[in-house]
Amino acid sequence: MSAFTTRPLTPAFGVEITGLDLADPESDSLFPHLRALFEEHSALLFRNQSLDDAHHLALAKQFGPIEDRNADSRKPGEAFEIPRVTNVRADGSVTEAMDLHTLHLKANMLWHSDSTFMPVPALTNILIARVVTTEGGATELASTRAAWAEMPETLKVRIRGRGIRHHYAHSRARISPELAKLEMFNKWPETRWNAVWSNPVNGREALYIASHARLVDGLDETESQALLDDLMDFCTQPRFVYAHQWQVGDVLLWDQRAVMHRGTPWPYDQPRTLSSICTSATPADGLHSLRMSAGQTASADARTQDQKHNKEITT
Ligand code: OGA
Ligand code: MN
Questions:
Q1: Is the dihedral of CA 73, 271, 181, 228 positive or negative?
Q2: The model's pTM
Q3: Distance of alpha carbon 250 from its chain centroid, rounded?
Q4: Which of 131, 252, 267, 282 has its CA 20 to 30 A from that of 191?
C-alpha cells in the first residue's frame, strides 16, 4: 500500500494529499481512507495527477451514483458524457463575454452548492483541470460547517429548523433574465431542503444554502433574500475560504453538504476547461434528514430514518 501524506489547505478545512497517484489501480484500495478524509475535512486536493475520463468516472463512482443532468434528453444507446465547465465551443473558438453560455459561467461565480435544485442534490463535485488560464479563473470554496460552528446564535436562530426552497432559474436570473428563461434552467420543480445538513458519520452540522436558494419558510421573498445574504456574507469571510489556482492535472473535490463554491473571472479570450463529475447524495449521506415534509420544521422523523438506514448498511 502506498503511503500518502496530508497537509491542511486552510486552518478551517480542506487537505492536500501528496504521494498518491490516483491513476494507479492500487490507489482504489485506499478509497475508504479518502472517504474518511472527505467526511472529516470537506475538501481534498490532489495536484499533478494524470486522470483520464475513465479514471475520473471510476473515482466518482466510489462516492455514489453519477449525476446525469441530461438523462431526459439522451437517446437510447447514447453514452453518458463527462460534463465540461468550459468557454470553448465545439469548433475550438471561445464564447464571447455576453454570450448566454458565458453568462451561465458567470452565474457559477455566485456562491453555491451544486444541484440543490435537483430532485436529489449532489454529494460531491470532482473537478479536474484540463485547460487553465494565465490569470484569474480560480475556484473558491467556503466551509459552511466551519462558519456554522462560529456563527452567533442570534443569526442561527433565524434559520435553524426552517426549510429553504431552491430553483435553478433563480441563480441564473440574478445574472440575466434572458438566461433564466432557458429550458435547461426550468426543467426541475422547486425543491425544499432543511437549512442545516447534519453529517450522519460525525454529527457535524453545516448550513445548506446556495445561490439557487429562493425562499425561506415563513418569510416573503424580500425577507428571504435579506436573510440568505446575511448568512452568505457570514459564511464567505476569508477565514472560511480556500481559493484554488488551477494547474493542468489538479483534482479538487469537495463535500457539497458542508462547502459552497464559486468560479472567479478570467480574461474571457483565454480558453478554460475543467472536467466535472457530481455524484448524488444518498440516504447514507443524510438525505432523508434534508427532506422536510410540508409544515414540518425540525426533521426528527427523517433523522430516525437516516439512522435506521445507516444501521442497516453497517450491520
Ligand atoms: C462547477 C462550478 C466553478 C468554476 O463546476 O460546479 O461551479 O470555477 N465551477 O468553474
Ligand atoms: Mn458549481
A1: positive
A2: 0.94
A3: 17
A4: 252
Fold of 5-313: Double-stranded beta-helix (3.60.130)
pLDDT of residue 21: 96
82-129, pLDDT tens digit by residue?
Answer: 999 999 999 999 999 889 999 999 999 999 999 999 999 999 999 999
Return the best residue to mutate from 56, 85, 114 for the ligand 1 pocket (most ligand atoms within 8 A of CB): 85
Contacts of 42 (CB under 8 A, 6+ apart): 13, 14, 143, 145, 254, 255, 258, 259
pLDDT at 301: 53
Residue type, 276: S
The set of cell numbers assigned to 78 is 447514447
pLDDT beneath 70, residues of the chain? 1-2, 295-315
Distances in whole angstroms, Cα of residue 251 to Cα of each of 18, 26, 97, 116, 130: 12, 18, 27, 23, 10
Residues with CB under 6 A from ligand 1: 85, 108, 114, 125, 127, 139, 261, 263, 274, 276
Supply the pLDDT for residue 180. Answer: 97
The amino acid present at 71, given as its one-letter code, is A
Q: Which atom of ligand 1 lies closest to the CA of 139?
A: 8
CB 23 within 8 A of CB 55: yes
What's the confidence (pLDDT) of residue 299? 46
Give exposure, 40-76, as e/b (b: 16+ Cβ within 10 Å): ebbbbbbeebebeeebbbebbeebbeebeeeeeeeee
Contacts of 158 (CB under 8 A, 6+ apart): 227, 230
Q: Which residue's CA is the nearest one to ligand 1's atom 4?
A: 263
Task: Among 114, 261, 262, 277, say which to mutate for ligand 1: greatest number of ligand atoms within 8 Å of CB.
Answer: 261
Distance of CA 217 to the CA centre of its chain: 23
* Calpha distance 257→200 (Å, rounded): 11
* 171 Cα: distance to centroid of ligand 1 (angstroms): 14
